[in-house]
Prior knowledge:
Blueprint: H1 4-21, H2 26-39, H3 45-55, H4 59-67, H5 78-93
Amino acid sequence: MTSATDQAHIDRLKRIKYRAHHRGTQEMDIILGGFVDSEIKNFDAAMLDRLEALMNETDADLYQWIIGQPGTTQCQDVELLDMIIAHQREKAGSGA
């Protein structure tokens, strides 16, 4: 049987996965969805908070940061953004 705390965590993971795969642009669906599918199992509650905060950014800003174009705003969580970029590069390098 699942406790209420466990169920809340499971529900949170489902919401994050859904948001990662349903961004509004296909590019960000693929980039964030793939990253979340691969890495979310390793995230504690604090890291999930950071991920959700980053996911609140617009697709346009996220995409500019990921491809290295200067944008109108600065990313507040460069470490997490670097993890997403590294994941995308690894995925591209493997031909996946």
